[in-house]
Amino acid sequence: MRRTPAELDKMRRAGRVVAEILEKTRAAIRPGVTTRQLDEVARAVIAARGARSNFLNYHGFPATICTSPNEMIVHGIPGDYVLEEGDIISVDCGAIVEGYHGDAAYTAPVGKISAEAERLIEVTRRSLHAGIDQLVPDNRLHEVGRAVQEVVEKENFSVVRNYVGHGIGTAMHEQPSVPNYWPGSPGPRLKIGNVFAVEPMVNLGGPETLELADGWSVVTKDGSLSAHFEHTIAVTEEGPEVFTMADV
Ligand code: MG
Ligand code: MG
To answer: Ligand 2: distance of its center to the CA of 50 in Å?
Structure first.
């Protein structure tokens, strides 16, 4: 799907709301805070900006953000979990403005964390940006996954295969999928106006995943730590434009 300049402008505005959620939830993370409190921070931003939540009620999802601590990879439900010193917490969030979606995620430390956890977060963040750099006109989509995988595996971490990035626009999840690994084919040629959510999930141990009995939470099968970073990015003439990053 190629978005028109007017559509891209709406996605830019949705992205700014998402960027504000990223910043405000991140600022609220500290030992003693519950994941439900982080959800409330996100809900307040969406209300203040006159946006809508794309997570709430998505296939019945009961909250505005996903909060996934430690060995949880994605889709954790905010609730009574109390953040503890030494945890890592992945926050995934989105917003809709005038029918157009933004989607982004980050993993943050709670207080002082281990050197290994710090390295996992840093490598995952770096792998996202290596993937984003591939989003230029005429490149092939699966170069994103190749770049992500190279950064991750050089550090002896593993890339999750069972969950991937996606096209985004008038729905949160649109075709095509954006794998975070080389899937064996180059994929579609990138065109100006394409918009993708790129979202590497990186495990300290193996790539295998397990869904918990709540029907949402996905954890690492081996119990190792996992990190997740995501942005919504457009392919433009000038290169990749990240919509979900705060203005600097
Ligand atoms: Mg997301
Ligand atoms: Mg996404």
So the answer is: 21
Q: Hey, what are 136's tokens?
A: 């230029």
Cα of 56 from ligand 1 centre, angstroms: 13
Q: How far, in Å, from the CA of 40 to the mean position of ligand 2?
A: 20
Residues 178, 183: Cα–Cα separation, whole Å = 10
**Whether the predicted pLDDT of 247 surpasses 70:** no
Mean pLDDT along residues 207-231: 98
* Ligand 1 centroid from CA 86, angstroms: 24
* Beta strand ranges found along 4-157 (DSSP E): 65-69, 72-74, 88-97, 100-109
Class of domain 5-242 as given by CATH: alpha beta
Q: Kindly report, residue by residue over 130-161, the tens digit of the pLDDT.
A: 999 999 999 999 999 999 999 999 999 999 99
Residues 139-148 as b/e (b if ≥16 CB within 10 A, e otherwise) read: bebbbbbbbb
246 CA distance to ligand 2 middle (Å):
18
pLDDT value at residue 67: 98
Helical (H) or strand (E) element with 15: helix 5-28
Q: pTM of the prediction?
A: 0.97
Distance 204 CA to ligand 1 centre (A): 20
How many angstroms is it from 234 CA to the middle of ligand 2? Answer: 14
Q: Which ligand is nearest to the CA of 75?
A: 1
- H or E element, residue 198: strand 195-198
Residues 6+ apart with CB under 8 A from 63: 39, 55, 56, 77, 78
CA of 1 to the centre of ligand 2 (A): 17
Residue 248 confidence (pLDDT):
44
